[in-house]
Amino acid sequence: MRRLYELYLPRLGRFLYRVVQDAELIQELVNDVMLTVWQNAGAFRRESTVSTWILGIAYRKALDALRRQKRYSTLVRQVPEPDRHDDDIGYFIAERDLNRLLVKLSLEQRAVAELSFDFGYSYPEIAEILGVPVNTVKTRMYYARRTMQEAYSSRGNA
Known about the structure:
Layout lengths: L1 H19 L2 H18 L9 H19 L20 H14 L4 H11 L5 H8 L3 H21 L4
Helix pairs in contact: 1-2, 1-3, 2-3, 3-6, 5-7, 6-7
């Protein structure tokens, strides 16, 4: 379990940051997710990958936590400015721009985009993680791309 925790800590942290943006809550959620994994390991049916199963648990716990805090509809992403001393400034500019576009999305659209762009999950895997049909994932991705494209174009970057 310790090895599993160490293996998934960075991935869960990145994923949960994109959803909740609260360091204290992220740590609490990571621990809660891993406790759930430990308690329910016998219930894992091997119908998906372990990472899909774990991120699905994380997503549902994050949504529950946000709803409890009544911050669900008022999330705001704080995008750090790039470090001027970093060698790869282009990467940070692109990442900052992407983050500014992602913040325009609904939580559901953002989750689909993050899981696809950042984690490389397929639509069926994303559907498993989010607990929705594959067609719902496709629809959310369609609207996410459209919203991001419109936001990018409206900034005069077309």
